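Late entry, evening session. Most of the bench is empty. Finally got around to the prediction I had been postponing all week. Sequence below, unchanged from the version circulated by S.P.
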Amino acid sequence: MQQAPPDFSVKAQQLIEVGRFFFERGWVPATSGNFSARLDDDRLAITVSGRHKGRLGEADIMLVDGQGQSLSAGRKPSAETLLHTLLYRRDPDIRAVLHTHSVNATVLSKTGRTELRLRDYEVQKAFPGIDSHDCEITVPIIPNDQDMERLADRVVELLDRQPIPGYLIAGHGLYTWGNSVDDACRHIEAFEFLFECEVLTRRLGQ
């Protein structure tokens, strides 16, 4: 097994802090969710499979290669690691990928639709390329699938036509990414705020 690169501990600590922050807000209940950060062109730090995200320590963050294969002895990455590595391979500017399982994201992903349209929210400006509330953003919703390669193929198809850094998996949750852990965290916060607004708006019948 490879020795971790010098910045592994720094990235691991960032992911640990993200896990606590998200758990406190109810976005990663039980052992749900997974987080990763790019270390170099060939390696990334990612959460170990089945770990509680609100109680992560450095031992719960492992090293994998660009194909998602473990480089940490005795540790297994999430089955969804392929959904992380495909993003890193497609875009060298992506430095972090975060996945949450909030109630609002899960409920909105189960409407039977293929996308969620959001419009006229000021918080939309948290996303790159958006400088006004006066626009509509579309969050794709893709069917859940236990076949990760097939699911990854669907993700690639939507990324070819989707400028917003995020998508929903039906009944499963949200994936987003950014040019740093902080960027990806900001996107999660923005999406979760928008999802909560949307759920409340629909509850009010508007």
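Two things to note before I forget:
The chain is about 35% helix and 20% strand.
The CA atoms of residues 64 and 71 lie 5 Å apart.
Will write this up properly tomorrow.
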